[in-house]
Amino acid sequence: MHTTGRNLPGLLGEARRWFEEALLRALEKSGEVPVSPPQVQLFAVLDEQGATVSELAQRTGVTRQTAHQAVHGLVDAGLLEQCPHPSSARQRLIRRTREGERVHRRASSILAELEERLAERIGRRSVDALRDALETPWGDPPSVEPPAE
Asked: Domain HTH marR-type, which positions (predicted)?
């Protein structure tokens, strides 16, 4: 077992960046519209029903302003569209366009290939264990007292 002494959130962030960088490179090589890492994250959390900018900000853990900028970049790129919200005249629903759906399918295929490449590097059993741990519900974050100084 390898131990670097680094905390788990830092390691998870590094792992996410590994996938993001490889995904962005593959999309660029295939001639897709260039997107930024925040746009990739936002695009990834957008489900079939669509979401408001506020919901997307919450899902990605960024400010509403950051999510708004990412959405508008993806709208300008033709990957997302803004539609009337069915229950609120003040809000807009963000959805993938037909082109956005195509790019999403391509990105999903690339991510599956990256997972296979990772399995070649660290072993299928390790990848399966990682997936299992991350798919298991963790419950609400606990309340933890800071250590005494």
From this structure: 1-139
